[in-house]
Design a protein that fits this description.
This protein has six helices and six strands. The protein is mostly helical. InterPro entries: Myb/SANT-like_dom (IPR024752).
């Protein structure tokens, strides 16, 4: 990653190892990548490095900066985590989804109790979720067909590193969950055995015969 801090105010740069993303920069990045998805240019495994470089070039031209493709990729990962949190909260017990405002609505008492335990979720409850449609296009669209199809709530892998490499986002609704997930638990497989009707009839007949022989013997 290019160790350059990008300042949107003046366009100047200084060696600091941090890149500051403004809402305008994030909006353009997500819009550009969502457009690639709409045009069918994204692969089933995610965006190519060339896509990240193209996006960086657009940002640099618009904001007169020096963003790299790797910085775009790392910033995209931040929004993938946000989308993952949004998907979980949409399925929260008692939550209602407002399609018109892209808001996850939760009763105030329920919301207060939830946010007390999970403060990182507060920016996503009872307030419009910024960039929702762009995130839904990038991370939630179907990436394949048949057995490999992904539903709208699945997370699309974008092939990024696990660390943010010192990245800072100034957009207000970018809180990340601080609750790591463990490996998924394996569910016990339940197998239902359907008995042949003929076998059931024969078994019943044999039982009747056996009961008759017992009675006869007595």
């Amino acid at each position: 990653m290019d160790n350059t801090e990008v300042t949107a105010a003046s366009g100047n740069s200084a060696k600091s190892g941090v890149i500051v993303w403004t809402p305008a920069m994030t909006n353009m990045m997500l819009g550009f990548l969502a457009d690639l998805v709409a045009k069918g240019k994204r692969t089933s495994s995610g965006f190519r490095e060339a896509h990240h470089r193209q996006c960086a070039a657009v940002l640099n031209e618009q904001f007169k900066l020096a963003v790299t493709g790797e910085q775009v990729r790392n910033h995209l990962k931040k929004w993938r985590k946000i989308w993952g949190r949004v998907v979980i909260l949409k399925n929260l017990s008692g939550a209602l989804w407002d399609e018109n405002t892209c808001t996850i609505r939760l009763a105030e008492e329920h919301c207060a109790g939830h946010c007390m335990a999970r403060k990182a979720d507060a920016p996503f409850l009872n307030t419009p979720i910024e960039h929702y449609h762009a995130m839904a296009t990038i991370f939630g669209t179907t990436a394949a067909s048949g057995m490999n199809a992904r539903s709208g709530n699945d997370l699309l892998s974008i092939d990024v590193e696990d660390e943010e490499n010192g990245e800072v986002n100034t957009s207000p609704n970018v809180a990340e969950s601080s609750h790591p997930k463990g490996p998924p638990k394996k569910k016990a497989k339940v197998v239902k055995v359907l008995q042949d009707p003929l076998v059931t009839t024969l078994n019943y007949g044999f039982k009747l015969v056996a009961d008759a022989l017992v009675n006869y013997g007595d």
